[in-house]
Write a structure and sequence with these properties.
219 residues; mainly alpha; Endonuclease III, domain 1; Endonuclease Iii, domain 2; binds iron/sulfur cluster; 2 domains; 0% strand; 11 helices
Length: 219
């Protein structure tokens, strides 16, 4: 059964990478911080994302000061994240929209909403796709979600726990249906760890892989 295989996959990776508990460094007390960080992360690596975010927070200590500075100044500060022109415009639009909707630069109120309503709200914001929404839900709002990035998608497809035709959004929905809430964050982090360490996009190391006997090896 597909659900049994998904849980078995997570069991094996949990024994290998030990991220079953919520890593304390993940997540933001203010979900808007997590949302903006995730917008910055699109099409770049964690190092460039974090560097751009740190520079932005150093130059503009409040979200209000980001809006006051405007897209052009912000673009110059977040350049290391790439696509700076597009990302700066999106960030300003998101901040203005959040302020208009909640009267403050905060998304803490979303924690009181049910998940479907949160998804609908966040998906209306510019540049916010399914993966971004799932990240904010899981990391910042402590809700049930299973973000599917390139590593999670690759491991899921290759092992055969989902059909090769499944899109990231379909994998996300399938995993959210199958995986118990308390295992989503650890499972997500473990799958990323495995994709980075062993199941590389090019030249996966099947000979040393803990999933070798389990995996369909759809490479
Ligand atoms: S056996 Fe190979 S393809 Fe399967 S998960 Fe491991 S490294 Fe990836």
């Amino acid at each position: 059964m597909q659900s049994t295989r998904v849980l078995r996959l997570l069991d094996i990776l949990e024994a290998e990478y030990h991220n079953e508990a919520r890593p304390p460094e993940l997540g933001h007390a203010e979900p808007l911080d997590g949302l903006i960080l995730t917008v910055l992360s699109q099409n770049t690596n964690d190092r460039n994302r974090d560097s751009a975010y740190a520079m932005m927070r150093a130059k503009f200590p409040s979200w209000e000061s980001v809006v006051e500075a405007g897209a052009e100044q912000l673009e110059g500060v977040i350049r290391t994240a790439g696509l700076a022109h597009t990302k700066a415009a999106r960030i300003i639009t998101i901040l203005k929209r959040v302020y208009a909707d909640f009267g403050e630069y905060s998304l803490r109120e979303l924690a009181e909403w049910e998940t479907g309503r949160i998804r609908e709200y966040l998906r209306e914001l510019p540049g916010v796709g399914a993966k971004t929404v799932a990240c904010v839900l899981l990391f910042d709002l402590k809700k049930k979600a299973f973000p599917v990035d390139t590593h999670v998608g690759r491991v899921a497809h290759r092992t055969g726990v989902v059909s090769a035709k499944y899109s990231p959004e379909e994998i996300c929905a399938k995993f959210e249906h199958i995986v118990p809430e308390g295992r989503c964050l650890g499972g997500h982090v473990n799958m990323i760890a495995h994709g980075r360490a062993v199941c590389h996009s090019r030249k996966p190391e099947c000979n040393i892989c803990v999933l070798s006997g389990f995996c369909d090896k759809n490479i």
